[in-house]
UniProtKB/TrEMBL annotation:
Keyword ATP-binding in annotation: yes
UniProt cross-references to PANTHER family, sorted A to Z: ABC TRANSPORTER ATP-BINDING PROTEIN, ABC TRANSPORTER, ATP-BINDING PROTEIN
GO MF assignments: ATP binding; ATP hydrolysis activity
Protein name: ABC transporter ATP-binding protein
Length: 288
């Protein structure tokens, strides 16, 4: 594997004991340094299984799973000095304050960590630093969980549904923080069911179905690939607003379309690219 890759997974197969079929089958993908990669798929598709293998928490797989240019199994405990993990279910101590939690976790690392108050401030929790976590809302616990993942300034961060339980303003704050991490060179491996979120922040996504990734690419590329080559035009007519569709090919010579433009009747125009929701359904077969 190239040492330039942050993650390399090739022909990964994993079957849980007693299961009749593998959860992962010939799973292959790569993650470049400094990119945000989204692994998308329905519940039970194997997203968490993939993460646990990459974190060194699951053994007994075949194929290759490598991080930082080395097999996961060979990294040992040193792996946890370089990765940060924020699970969907917060892993924090409820009877401690937010600051006490971060100070406790900071003591687990061999290197110096970031100032806990600075990390709390980055997710708008500085005012709650001395509050016991059992008094936190779910969204606050999720943000504290993210602080734990970022405390030691890791090279690679695993995020599982990072905005669960958060209101739109807090979700925006979290997405901005993720993008800021990318700007600093941090690699993000994200799993989420929020397709709008994945579209906004991911450089590339892979749809996990049947134990492998049949569809992968940047959100923009995939939306164009799976969309229709049409332009939807909304016009203001006497009877109200009307929508019409025109084929993109040769639209500059389409007399009807040009007539609407000339008459000043066009209110809005939109190309008919697919949404990530549409691609999710087509790639995974869920809901079909």
């Amino acid at each position: 594997m190239s040492e330039d890759l942050m993650i390399s997974v090739e022909n990964l197969v994993f079957t849980y004991p007693g299961a009749s079929a593998p959860t992962l089958s010939s799973l292959t993908f790569r993650v470049e340094p400094g990119e945000i990669y989204g692994l998308l798929g329905p519940s039970g598709a194997g997203k968490s299984t993939t993460q646990r293998i990459l974190m060194g928490l699951l053994k007994g797989f075949s194929g290759t799973a490598e991080i930082f240019g080395e097999p996961v199994a060979s990294l040992g405990r040193h792996l946890y000095e370089r990765i940060g993990v924020s699970f969907e279910l917060p892993a924090v101590y409820l009877r401690l304050t937010a600051l006490e939690n971060l100070k406790l976790f900071a003591g687990l690392y061999s290197k110096a960590t970031r100032d806990p108050m600075e990390v709390l401030a980055s997710v708008d929790l500085a005012d709650a630093a001395h509050q016991r976590v059992d008094q936190f809302s779910k969204g606050m616990k999720m943000r504290l969980n993210l602080c734990r993942a970022l405390l030691h300034d890791p090279d690679l961060v695993f995020l599982d549904e990072p905005t669960t339980g958060q209101d739109p303003a807090r979700s925006r704050l979290t997405r901005d923080l993720i993008l800021a991490l990318k700007d600093r060179g941090t690699t993000i491996f994200l799993t989420t069911h929020n397709m709008a979120e994945a579209e906004e922040i991911c450089d590339r996504v892979g749809f996990l179905a049947g134990g492998c990734i049949p569809v992968t690419g940047s959100p923009t590329e995939l939306m164009r690939q799976f969309g229709r080559s049409e332009l939807e035009v909304t016009t203001a007519m006497t009877a109200g607003l009307e929508k019409r569709s025109f084929a993109m090919e040769g639209i500059g010579d389409n007399a009807e379309f040009l007539g609407l433009l000339t008459a000043g009747q066009v209110v809005s125009m939109h190309t008919q690219e697919a949404s990530l929701d549409d691609i999710f359904i087509r790639a995974t077969g869920v809901g079909q």
